């Protein structure tokens, strides 16, 4: 699916462009989230450029593997798990619609929860990804198109990011400073927001 590859190219470029912002947000951690995400996406795009098979399953699998092999810290294994869990549910004919996104994103989030031993309210990427996922559930999606669900998801992602400023970190290096992490946006939540937002921006054109 060349459309999926094009979307990932767009998202990767946006994340790489925001490398310094993500590093600054990670100043209460290791200050390398942006560098790590840029490295992971660069490796993923290089691997995808060499592919002939651009099925959804293969693309997600390659991205997950690239993240696993090229990103250290907490974010690499978590994002790798998310993509690989989604890939495991795909077949050669998987196409995107509201139900498919709900299923794949649900599997990705479940993988992140188990790998990171985390949930919402702990100042992590899940504070963005779970509200985004809810936008694709039957209760929230209703009769909306996939595009409209993604548009709604961008707003939910921003609200989730803002929420991370109001709570202390309980995971990762940032948890060492406890209450002093309040007032800071979580870098993983920000990188998740960027991905959701840039997918929407890609689909607008």
Please characterize this protein's 3D structure.
InterPro entries: DhaK_L_YcgS (IPR012737), DhaL_dom (IPR004007), DhaL_dom_sf (IPR036117), Dihydroxyacetone_Kinase (IPR050861). Its EC number is 2.7.1.121. It catalyses: dihydroxyacetone + phosphoenolpyruvate = dihydroxyacetone phosphate + pyruvate. The chain has a single domain (2-203), classed as DhaL domain (Serine Threonine Protein Phosphatase 5, Tetratricopeptide repeat), CATH 1.25.40. Helix content is 67%, strand content 0%. It contains ten helices and no strands.
Q: State the low-pLDDT regions, or none.
A: none
Class based on secondary structure composition and strand pairing: mainly alpha
Integer tally of domains: 1
Sketch the topology as an H/E string, one letter per element: HHHHHHHHHH
In CATH, the architecture is Alpha Horseshoe
InterPro entries: DhaK_L_YcgS, DhaL_dom, DhaL_dom_sf, Dihydroxyacetone_Kinase
Catalytic activity: dihydroxyacetone + phosphoenolpyruvate = dihydroxyacetone phosphate + pyruvate
Protein name: phosphoenolpyruvate--glycerone phosphotransferase
EC number: 2.7.1.121
Defining key terms:
Serine Threonine Protein Phosphatase 5, Tetratricopeptide repeat, single chain, globular
Short description:
This protein is 67% helix and 0% strand. It has 10 helices and no strands.
Topology:
Layout: H1 2-17, H2 19-25, H3 33-49, H4 56-70, H5 75-88, H6 98-116, H7 126-134, H8 138-141, H9 146-164, H10 187-203
Helix pairs in contact: 1-3, 1-10, 2-3, 2-10, 3-4, 4-5, 5-6, 6-7, 7-9, 7-10, 9-10
């Amino acid at each position: 699916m060349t459309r999926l590859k094009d979307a990932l190219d767009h998202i990767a470029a946006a994340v790489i462009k925001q490398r310094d912002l993500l590093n600054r947000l990670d100043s209460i951690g290791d200050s390398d989230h942006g560098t790590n995400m840029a490295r992971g996406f660069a490796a993923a795009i290089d691997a995808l450029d060499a592919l002939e098979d651009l099925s959804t399953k293969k693309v997600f699998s390659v991205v997950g593997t690239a993240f696993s092999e090229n990103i250290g810290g907490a974010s690499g294994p978590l994002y790798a798990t998310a993509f690989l869990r989604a890939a495991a549910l795909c077949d050669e004919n998987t196409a995107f619609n509201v139900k498919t996104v709900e299923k794949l994103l649900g599997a990705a989030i479940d993988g992140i929860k188990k790998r990171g031993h985390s949930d919402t309210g702990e100042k992590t990427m899940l504070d963005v990804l779970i509200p985004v996922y809810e936008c694709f559930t039957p209760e929230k999606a209703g009769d909306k198109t996939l595009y409209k669900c993604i548009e709604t998801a961008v707003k939910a992602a921003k609200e989730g990011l803002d929420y991370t400023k109001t709570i202390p970190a309980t995971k990762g290096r940032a948890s060492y400073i406890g209450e002093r992490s309040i007032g800071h946006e979580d870098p993983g939540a920000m990188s998740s927001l960027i991905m959701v937002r840039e997918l929407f921006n890609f689909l607008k054109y």
